[in-house]
Design goal:
Number of helices: 12
Number of strands: 10
CATH superfamily: Histone deacetylase domain
Structural class: alpha/beta
Strand order of the largest sheet: 4-1-5-10-9-6-7-8
Order of helices and strands: EEEHEHHHHHHEHEHEEHEHEH
CATH class: Alpha Beta
Strand content: 5-15%
CATH architecture: 3-Layer(aba) Sandwich
CATH topology: Arginase, Chain A
Radius of gyration: 19 Å
Length: 354
């Protein structure tokens, strides 16, 4: 018998993605989004009930991503391996080398490139997010975890946790980047909508603004997106977006809220921002909640300078529990393996009220 009644939805297939390395400012660096993240979290949640994901994510994925992106991710690595890049240049992962931005094309209509190393830049928007053997399978399994967790909540559970890996909140309608391939939080939100929730709120606690989630729901009023994150104006990813002035467009005006914080903020201002977002989704009439649980805002994490403590994450869980909304918690970032699991546990026990 598990001590806690919060289901932990996971899949062993999420371990298959191995980015091996990243390319940052032209330099090859070791990957930080590694399969060991799954095991670190599972070890810390050993007394929670485990549910292995079996749901199909296909319908939800098609509603938040373009057919082009899904087709590319599914076929990219096999095309790369078949083209012999590993033997020719020593690169056994899919990585773009040019991007068809307006700066390149000058408004000329684009054609589909003949080679996968060129086409990669049509979907990847950075050089850090490499595709290898198992990437599509792992990302699809992560999305299945989000669908399964949303199904549990849609069927009456008050809280479910999706151990999604790789993370997803930087994946847009038609692109991937920021170590994210498929947007798990967006998948959870549309699944809750399909279960009958007219308005769903997403609260993103990751250290970096979820540009992908924000973009997917930018012009929609049925899904709210709110994020507390390190200020991109201080030089942090995603650099170009994540500012307080961004509030949505069209039907989605007012449905996006960014609360950027200065580096070194710590628990106090961070928790004040979480509290503000909790009040916002309730006052806006949301009937269900998705939490993008990145724990990379923690003091020991190498990817962020916000310096949030374990107690801060526990308190954040309490604040979002007090919304009274049924919630799907979706794993995003968190890269300091020694503390990753205990940070996730701190949040979940706070949200569960234990």
């Amino acid at each position: 018998m598990s001590q806690y009644d919060v289901p932990v939805v996971w899949s062993p297939t999420t371990r298959l993605h191995d980015p091996h390395h990243e390319v940052w400012v032209g330099v090859t660096t070791p990957a930080v989004e590694v399969a060991a993240r799954v095991d670190a979290i599972l070890a810390a949640l050993a007394d929670f009930p485990l549910v292995e994901a079996s749901a199909s994510p296909s319908s939800a994925l098609a509603s938040v991503h373009s057919a082009g992106l899904l087709g590319f991710l599914e076929s990219a690595w096999s095309r790369w391996a078949g083209a012999g890049y590993a033997e020719e240049v020593g690169q056994d992962r899919v990585v773009p080398y040019l991007f068809p931005t307006p700066a390149m094309t000058g408004g000329i209509p684009l054609s589909v490139p003949a080679r996968v190393h060129a086409e990669a830049g049509s979907y990847a928007y950075d050089t850090m997010t490499l595709v290898g053997p198992g990437t599509w399978e792992a990302a699809s399994a992560a999305a299945a975890c989000a669908v399964e967790a949303a199904s549990l909540v849609g069927s009456g559970s008050s809280l479910a946790y999706a151990l999604c890996r790789p993370p997803g909140h930087h994946a847009t309608l038609g692109g991937f980047g920021g170590a994210c391939y498929l947007n798990n939080a967006a998948v959870a939100a549309v699944s809750l909508r399909a279960a009958g929730h007219e308005r769903v709120g997403i609260v993103d606690l990751d250290a970096h603004q979820g540009n992908g989630t924000a973009a997917i729901f930018w012009s929609r009023s049925d899904v709210l997106y709110g994020s507390v994150h390190v200020d991109p104006a201080a030089g942090w990813f995603p650099h170009y977006v994540g500012f307080a002035s961004e509030t949505g467009a069209g039907d989605g005006i007012g449905a996006t809220r960014n609360l950027p914080l200065e580096p070194g903020t710590g628990d106090g201002p961070w928790l004040a921002a979480v509290s503000s977002l909790a009040d916002w989704v309730v006052s806006a009439g949301c009937t269900a909640l998705v939490v993008s649980l990145g724990v990379d805002a923690a003091v020991d994490d190498p990817e962020s300078p916000l310096e949030v403590t374990h107690d801060g994450y526990h308190r954040a869980g309490e604040l979002l529990r007090h919304t009274g909304l049924p919630a799907v918690v979706v794993q995003e970032g968190g890269y300091h393996l020694p503390t990753l699991g205990s940070l996730v546990r701190a949040y979940l026990t706070g949200h569960a009220g234990t």
